[in-house]
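This follows on from our talk about sequence and fold. Go ahead and set the record down below:
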Amino acid sequence: MPTQNKTAEPLKVDRSTVTTLVITGAPRLDAITVFLEDFGRRDCPNESDPSYQTAQGKITINCWNVYWSGVGPRNVADVCRRLRQALHP
């Protein structure tokens, strides 16, 4: 059965400002990376101020991060369990 192709909407790309902080020197800890991302302002009118705007943003704190490109038939929970068993027999 043939399907009809629809024209895709153009992608929207937004810019944001990101400040990256790297915190080091804490005993027994790897570096802690903090990302402060400002998305800018958006209109948020209310009864007392119809022109009110609010700021938007996101904070990401990364102190431990692991990526596996392939874990075989296991899921990530299985890999973590096996890793913990190996580190703490």
User: Anything to note?
Assistant: Strands lie at 17-23, 32-43, 53-62. The mean pLDDT is 85. Residues 17-87 form one domain. The first helix runs from residue 76 to 87.
